Amino acid sequence: VDVAQFHEELTLIQRDRNAAFFAEENGAQLLVCSEIGSEGRNFQFAHHLILFDLPSDPELLEQRIGRLDRIGQTSTINIHVPYLTGTENEVLARWFHEGLEAFEHNLHGATEIADKLAKDLAKASKAPSEKAIVSLVKKSQKLKSEIGERLAKGHDRLLELNSAKPGKSAELIEAIQAWDDHPRFEDYFLKLLDFYNLNVEDLDERSYLITGNEQLTHKLPALPDEGMAITFDRTQALSREDFHFASIDHPMLQGGLDTLLGSDTGNAAFGVWETPGEKTIFIEAHFVIECVAPPALHLDRFLPPTPVRLVLDHQGKNRSQDEDLRKAELYNGSIHKLLKNEALKQQVLPKLIKALDPMAKKVATKLAQKAHLEASQSLGDELTRLKSLASNNPRITQGEIDAMESYHQAILDGLKQARPRLDAMRMIFKRPKSASR
């Protein structure tokens, strides 16, 4: 069979490659490890653990088993412990198995048990005999039971009763699974990588190797120089240490989106909507309502940057609430033929674009008024509490009250400055499906 190694004499890269080779379905069937295999790396896809030697520390044994006994493990773990009778390894094997049940269950109070039995274990290991092993096992069973009972009494029962909420957990799991299996997410993520000219190589179903290039890698700090293996399959990510799970929260996606949204790329677009009805041209504009003020005021408490979508058709009618248009599936088309129409280019489009600005300002005014009212009430309550405290606490000075009043007034003045910023615009050409593309 194919065998991989994992030990101190290998470089970090060699260890990573060998661990990945072992994780592959058609890769190595056996991984031979030194003690460093008991830390860091996870092998929950493996179902057999062979312990050719045993540590005297129960916690170290638990670490070894823990490499396999992790989230993502789908089978019973079979632990194999070969030993020679009359040796130290027999003492350790029977101590762990018969005295502590450490192979079958997590051992609570392992450090305390090991400390109290250190002398007995050393004595039995030095001169292995059936009598010494039986005595060690019995003493271990009794001590394990005593310590286990004491630790159990220390549990916070009220906390445990309120920890598990199956109904709420089920809803959360269902929502996460829906995101994992969203049909468009994987396509969008890969398109974003393509936009940055990153190299995407298929590794397996829903799994890819991403490598960068000299021009654009610096824009995605989460992508290492040697590249990154990603998968959109959560089960695959849990079982493969070398795979990153490509979720909506992945730093590479977040970094890519931040870079994209901070650039001019994609701010102007054109799409074709094929649906029954008359030919129509829409101008869709996305504004961001924001306040330009010193960061110390924290105006986003009351009015965070708010996106606003506005749509006008070529007759100037507001179609922002048209649900069919909002859900329309668009495809790429050529805008050049439309722009040959001079009346459209010189008159209709400029007029529509000009009409969008006052509409956005009207929305900004409404949002600012609402935020101003909320801020006035909230800040007024804060000021009232401070004045009430001042009447009973001489340490609160008039200067503090004046400073708070000035701070509050600055916030209210800042909210009045809310304004729309045009962030993106799209022209949509609606036409019947029978029309030629």
Describe this structure in words.
It is a single chain. The protein is α/β, with parallel strands linked by helices and 437 residues long. 46% of the residues lie in helices and 16% in strands. The protein is built from 15 helices and 12 strands. It has helices at residues 12-23, 58-66, 88-99, 110-116, 118-126, 130-153, 157-163, 166-180, 185-195, 234-239, 251-261, 323-326, 336-339, 342-392, 398-415, and strands at residues 3-6, 30-33, 48-50, 78-80, 199-204, 207-211, 228-231, 244-245, 268-274, 280-290, 306-313, 419-431. It has a 4-stranded mixed beta sheet. The longest helix is centred in the C-terminal third of the chain and has 51 residues, at 342-392.
C-alpha geometry: flat
Q: How are strands sequenced across the largest beta sheet?
A: 5-6-7-8
SSE topology string: EHEEHEHHHHHHHEEEHEHEEEHHHHE
Mean pLDDT equals 85
- Which structural class do you get from the secondary structure elements? alpha/beta
Q: How much strand content do the residues show?
A: 15-25%
Q: Which blocks of ≥5 consecutive residues have pLDDT under 50?
A: none
Helix-residue proportion = 40-55%
Sheet having the most strands: 4 strands, mixed
Tally of helical runs: 15
- Rg computed from alpha carbons, rounded to a whole number of angstroms: 33 Å
Distance between the termini: 58 Å
Number of DSSP strand runs = 12
